[in-house]
Specification:
459 residues; alpha/beta; Aspartate Aminotransferase, domain 2; 7-stranded mixed beta sheet; 4-stranded mixed beta sheet; 13 helices; 16% strand; binds pyridoxal-5'-phosphate
Length: 459
């Protein structure tokens, strides 16, 4: 059942559109995650800066940003002008253009591990290409992923821990595929180990490194509350990969050009063998990139296949050039982080005043809010926690026009367009939503002991 409230908004047009859309598109949308319920699913009329408007004219401050891409805000004038100008070049030619080199150079300047670059269209495609490259280069088929990570919708990455099997914490969870259509055979190709636990990774590498091509890691779990790698953990992953002759693929699809100019790799002081970036690269235009060490990357074209009709499409490249130049040359990322910090401080004040245990995870530009004094460090922590408070509160916030993700796993994303007006509006609505949540969860009487409503993590 959806926790999203629909008391304050008129959703007449979105609801009517849903009834029409569902006749033509499964669930009425183009991604399963965009369906929020027959009555709750909304459709966007337009976005500008940090705000978006639905078909009924309801206005929202957007903290989802399309799951991260709109790093400079929706409809950014300069980025869009660059993309429009590129239309005069033509879209795709099945031939290279000059701009590929311009954008590759920008990525190389900003991310030291990028000795060479190749473009893809989406995060999923880039990670698939990175994994294939690792396999081609090493001549090995298997790989390791971490619990709670997300690397896109392709068979090799669509496996997660079965929540029921997590209850007995003395045992590793059973892995299940994300739904049907994923061959069971794929399960034989990988190991999944707990996040932030280098010794468990070493156990696997020690025994199986002769068949393992790569360790695939998100430096911050961008789809699990923004749980960050502990610095000593990600450094250990780097060292273990080198020690056991396994490539380290750092999936920076969410963190790249968001948590800093050099992504999470610069923040942690590590370099991947291969990495992927996507979302923030072009402020929402579809483009992704694979970067990595020259010797590995040169395997593309020398045994390892890579390509695609739309790779390095002109408008996306032009948007990437403009977006990356702005991120590189202005203080946009500092302002984004400062906004995220101020928002956390404001939320902290509201929650502390009410005695509500809480913690924040991730980076200021993509952070998770967790209703326990102890922040989660693994997927198991999050999964075994009670996230009722978050889910209920998010339902109120969306109804008030603060578009956070209804699922507590997704971080709050900040853009360069979030300003002081967004901040004060968000914080006052946050305060109201917290009180409404306390009321709802206490059956209308929250004067008593608030801490009873906050069971906190059990694992
Ligand atoms: C870390 C990570 N990798 C890969 C992907 C897949 O990217 P896309 O949705 O562009 O295919 C995502 C998407 O959220 C992601 O967060």
């Amino acid at each position: 059942m959806s926790t999203i409230k629909t008391q304050r908004r008129n959703l007449t047009k979105s609801r009517a559109h849903y009834q029409e859309a569902v006749k033509h598109l499964p669930l009425g949308v183009s991604s399963n995650f965009r369906y929020w319920g027959d009555e709750e699913t909304i459709f966007v009329k337009r976005g500008k800066g940090a705000r978006l408007w639905d078909l009924d004219g309801n206005e929202y401050i957007d903290y989802r940003l399309g799951y991260g891409p709109a790093i400079l805000g929706h409809c950014h004038d300069e980025v869009d002008a660059a993309a429009r100008e590129a239309q005069s070049v033509g879209t795709v030619f099945a031939l290279g253009t000059e701009k590929e080199v311009t954008v590759a150079k920008l990525i190389k300047d900003m991310m030291p591990a990028a000795e060479l670059v190749r473009f893809s269209n989406s995060g999923t495609e880039a990670v698939m290409a990175a994994l294939r490259l690792a396999r081609g280069y090493t001549g090995k088929d298997n790989y390791v992923t971490f619990e709670g990570s997300y690397h896109g919708l392709f068979d090799a990455a669509m496996w997660t821990a079965d929540p029921d099997s997590m209850k007995d914490q003395s045992k590793d969870p059973v892995l299940v595929s994300y739904g049907q259509g994923i061959p069971k055979l794929v399960r034989q190709l990988f190991w999944q180990v707990p996040y932030n636990d280098a010794s468990r990774l070493e156990d696997v590498l020690k025994r199986h490194s002769d068949s393992i091509a790569a360790v695939l890691i998100e430096p911050i779990l961008g789809n699990c509350c923004g749980i960050p790698s502990k610095p000593e953990f990600i450094k250990a992953v780097r060292e273990l990969c080198t020690k056991y002759g396994v490539l380290m693929i750092v999936d920076e699809v969410k963190t790249g050009f968001r948590v800093g100019r050099g992504g999470a790799q610069a923040m942690y002081g590590i370099e991947a063998d291969i990495f992927t970036v996507a979302k923030a690269v072009a402020n929402g235009y579809p483009i992704a990139a694979i970067g990595g060490k020259e010797e590995i990357m040169r395997k593309y074209g020398k045994g390892v296949a890579h390509g695609g009709t739309y790779t390095a499409q002109a408008m996306s490249l032009a948007a990437a050039e403009k977006t990356l130049t702005i991120l590189k040359e202005t203080d946009a990322l500092d302002r984004i982080a400062a906004y995220g910090k101020a928002m956390q401080e404001g939320m902290h004040k509201v929650l502390s005043k009410r005695g509500i245990p809480h913690s924040f995870t991730g980076h200021y530009s993509m952070s998770g809010l967790f209703f326990s004094a102890t922040a989660p460090t693994t997927y198991r922590n999050w999964k075994l926690s009670d996230y009722t408070f978050y889910d209920t509160m998010a339902g109120y916030l969306i109804d008030m026009g603060v578009m956070c993700e209804p699922d507590s796993r997704e971080p709050w994303f900040i853009s360069g367009a979030h300003d002081a007006a967004c901040l004060s509006e968000t914080l006052s609505k946050f305060e109201e939503a917290v009180d409404l949540t306390l009321d709802e969860l206490s059956g209308g009487d929250h004067e008593g002991d608030d801490s009873k409503l906050m069971p906190g993590i059990s694992g």
